[in-house]
Amino acid sequence: MPSSPHSHSFRLTPTDYNALVERATAGPELYWMRESERLSWNTVPTHAQSEQQGWFPGGTLNASVNCLDRHLETRGDQKALIWQAEDAGRVLTFTYKTLHEHVCRIANVLRQQGIQAGDRVAIHLPSVPEGLIAMLACARIGAIHVVLFGGFSPEAIADRLADSGAVLVITANVGRRGPKRIPFKATLDAALDLRPDTLAVNTVLVVGVTDDEIGMKPERDRWLAPLLDKAASDCAPQSMPASAPLFLLYTSGSTGKPKGIVHGTGGYLVWASYTHELVFDHQDGDIFWCTADIGWITGHTYGVYGPLLNGGTVLLFEGMPSYPGPGRWWNVIQDHKVTTFYTSPTAIRALMREGDEVVQRYDLSSLRVLGTVGEPISQEAWSWFNDHVGGGRCAFVDTWWQTESGGIMISPVPGAVREKPASATLPLPGVHPVLLNEQGVPREGATEGVLCLKGSWPGRALSIWNDDGLFERTYLQPYAGYYFTGDGARRDEDGYYWITGRVDDVINVSGHRIGSAEIEDALATEVTIAESAAIGIPHDLKGQGIVVYVVPRDNAPDDLHVRAAKAITSKVGRYAAPERIHVVPDLPKTRSGKSVRRLLRKIACGETEGFGDLSTLADPEIVETLIRIIQTPA
Ligand code: ATP
Ligand code: MG
Prior knowledge:
By secondary structure, the protein is an alpha/beta fold. GO terms for molecular function: acetate-CoA ligase activity.
């Protein structure tokens, strides 16, 4: 395989990489046993994988020891966490030694509050260091953390607290968001009052992020700071079986009700460490910035576990990309000399809208690896990020994975896998994707189909919380013998994968199967369009017809409809000509920034009610706005 055209020296050469692929394929048992040595075990596992007992049976370990204690001797004074506050002048730095002390203190407080191994502890915090620290503190005592995204509504919080059976919640008085204050505690209070009979929460610990006053219920709520002052800075870790749940995390809810995905300890940690090292070419001295909130899986695996397991330095930023000015993220990269920058296509699209001049004002020469995750990225966005942010010098990893996979599955490996713009490229060594036709038969060579995975991998979720049956039905039963990802993909003549979107999003127009991503890619080439979404609606003659929603950039021209239609017919084909094009101010998005096509489909079909749970939306009101636009004759 030809190597990447970059000037950096990367850890792996194409030859090393090919050797890994061969070893992983020829002898998975031996391969994963060797990879398990990246962790420090109390009892070493007897096997890599067993049919009944999952990954690394017999092994016992503690996750926080693996992230912290075992680095103390060699990296005690190295930075483990850099926290950049919203105000540029405020930075907190934690070395491995001080981070260890903070984690132990919160762990001791949790124990004093009666938390035991196996209990669920919810973490509902803004982007402050306490979030990461609380996760590791739970892990230290064997409690299962359930991180709730800070932007959730009381409804969404109550649902997840009820489902997880959390007994304690760690929250903040408020969060900072630009000049605004976000009422964390008040939102949690509202959630706890919604359906009290369904909740097991009896303690709320409150982090004072600012000195804003809030209401406290004396029998339930406690400020964390005074408890920490009294807590010891060392805490004996709880040894856990490899198969014990480390955390529950709810999926983003793009396709419906969020699922409480359960991740185990041994397998998940091996996967986090393995993928972080391989995909981000982790090297000593790297400053790793993952912009995902810790409320999403990306924030778990690459904002916390992966980099710390590998002795890296994590950067955590409290603020937003556009406050106080549009160059804020670039400023953070410049100030902290970030080497590895991992973000989402939706963020890149927003930053692209600000124009190239903004980026050019900053020195981004520290960057070595750029990554994206969460959605297919358009060629336009890929190239903009690569050229303007990466200066054409950086490795670019478009990483495909999902909450359920625990970590990255398909991605370039810097220095070893040649990139193709907007392709997730090749599976990591030990990952075996297959493309199935609708009857479930694997297709060979260059083809397209339903993306499934053959065999297991250490990071695979254990189950869905409270519902093993749902896990089976969702992932294992649709295509017997395979893990079903829910996504579609194309494989080209080089064996590269191109994710085409969710299988549900494939539109079948007169027998032509068109991925919504294909149409959206075409629309992204039209410079006056900021964002778009394509969906299928029933059509008497064609089976399905295409409806397109486009969000214009500022100062969009009057003939946007014409331009949009032309972009599609010229880039995809005449058969993809849409039935209708709606120009809209925004799209309904999950709080992780993904378009919710299930709603767009209903709205396009003229439905005005029965949209189900809208609490995962960033802005539920957009639904009303779109209905109004669709119902108004053009
Ligand atoms: P839900 O399962 O509740 O509908 P979700 O699937 O959006 O929510 P996540 O687990 O956060 O929740 O997202 C995983 C999905 O994101 C993948 O299945 C895929 O559809 C999409 N995705 C992730 N990375 C990429 C990528 N690099 N390219 C294309 N799609 C991606
Ligand atoms: Mg999903």
